[in-house]
Design goal:
- By secondary structure, the chain is an alpha/beta fold.
- The protein folds into 2 domains: 2-222, Rossmann fold (3-Layer(aba) Sandwich), CATH 3.40.50.10260; 229-236 and 244-503, 3-Layer(aba) Sandwich (UDP-N-acetylmuramoyl-L-alanine:D-glutamate ligase).
- Helices cover 40% and strands 15% of the residues.
- It contains 17 helices and 18 strands.
- Helix 14 crosses helix 15 (461-483).
- The longest helix is centred in the C-terminal third of the chain and has 23 residues, at 461-483.
- The structure holds ligand LZDS7PUF and potassium ion (K).
- The site of ligand LZDS7PUF has 33 residues, from helix 1, helix 2 and helix 3.
Length: 505
Amino acid sequence: MKIFSAAQIREADAFTIAHEPISSTHLMERAAGQCAAWLEDHYSPSHPVYIFCGKGNNGGDGLVIARLMLGHGYDVHTCILQHSSKASPDHEHQLRTLQQLHPTGIYTIGDVSDFPELPPNAIIIDAIFGTGMSRPVDGWVAGIIHLINDQRHKHPIIAIDMPSGLMADESSVHNPVVQAHTTLSFEFYKLAFLLPENAPYAGDVHILPIGLHPDYITQTPARYHLSDREMMRTIYRPRDPFAHKGTYGHALLIAGSYGKMGAAVLSARACLRAGVGLLTCHVPQCGTQIMQISEPAAMCITDEDAHYSTHFHKGISSAGYKAIGIGPGIDKQPGTAKSLEMLMDAWQRPMVIDADALNLLSVYPYLLYKVPKGSLLTPHPKEFERLFGKTANDIARLELLSKKAVELQLYILLKGRYTAIACPDGAVYFNHTGNPGMATGGSGDVLTGILTGLLAQEYTPKAAMLLGVWLHGYAGDLAAAQLSQEAMTASDIISSLGNAFREGI
Ligand SMILES: NC(=O)C1=CN([C@@H]2O[C@H](COP(=O)(O)OP(=O)(O)OC[C@H]3O[C@@H](n4cnc5c(N)ncnc54)[C@H](OP(=O)(O)O)[C@@H]3O)[C@@H](O)[C@H]2O)[C@H](O)CC1
Ligand SMILES: [K+]
């Protein structure tokens, strides 16, 4: 699914009006009608409805919702904020219609002292500002947003299109923003919903289709995308009935050190469950028995070093591997860094780089420029910061992520609630599968195994990244559904991978 900017959404709006064709008033009726239907499905007329409207088209939506719900027997109070002397033409039109049909129950708000006393049971609809927010809210309007937020423990707050104060494509950090429980947003996710710094604002997001013109949506390129099941169906390749284990590649996993062999075992198991044909694990001497006993399907190469792997580059180009994954639990020894450098000099094909291998790249930054083009880097926010530096906000971090992916010609993901995957062509994909139960030790090692397994099966690096992150999150969701977010562990993500392949694609 494409994620359009506020400017593109305005274009989509205008394109629909011109090409469907439909009047802007009717498009607003359609959008607000969807909201009213959702609200009526979720709240009975026993709930007094307080709708806060701005003077733009978001406020216009609020006025239509007020009229529709009044018509269906709800007790509606419409509060119009006088933040501007001018209202949009559609707002004016909708206000006249509402005044004619239901002249009572319309109030103006010009200061915080006008904020109404809310009866118990009331619901709050936030239709103050939508995608037209052009600057941070200040003064008494900010005061109204704070007063709305003060109600959030007593009354449900439902935002229309966007929580007011939130900017669709810019950072809103430190700005006053409505903290909604639910956001009913039109047609597309907005970039702002996907950024961790905005976690307190949108609540549960429901995307309501409002029939924006399909030609605009297919023809208009977007920089940001949200991964979805359809996308995974186009990526996934069912297995060939005449296959043998050579068909699905031979992966090498360089993982584990003294005290961290668990990371290697988890990664190896996930790699096998991702469907790889053959797996070899390169481990230090202390890890060979552990690996061989824990995972009989994996072959082992034992390093010359007792506790750390420092000689894994040897013979790499002639070994016939289809993919290499490196990082889980390898530690940051200078010998490991040296071997990584020689490995990258010799290999020069996309590989998966995670955990301590990423930390080695931040300790020896020149190594970053030796990473083979098309490789997959999987940092969590702290590793990302160590690699590329701090940023002022999440939008700046997203820009930096994308810039580095283009500059280094790598696929770099940034782990989070919506993991962002930046591609060498500048596109960024957000992934929505997964849950907070996956914030547990070993979860990242599992992802490295999955990605390495998919890469070995000759999925393209982009396909491996998108599908691997999706399956990892989906398996995590299945594990959480069965065991709870608290009790699930990284091993449970691996156990659920089979059902993720079956049900998640
Ligand atoms: N595109 C669609 O899919 C449809 C969207 N609809 C709804 O329309 C809004 C967007 O409406 P728009 O009129 O463009 O913008 P807003 O209503 O969000 O905001 C404009 C008003 O807000 C004022 N404003 C902006 N920033 C501030 C601020 N910081 N402080 C105070 N006031 C602010 C602005 O005033 P100006 O002084 O800047 O002119 C405007 O008064 C979209 O979100 C949907 O809800 C359609 O209904 C259907 C299709
Ligand atoms: K709003």
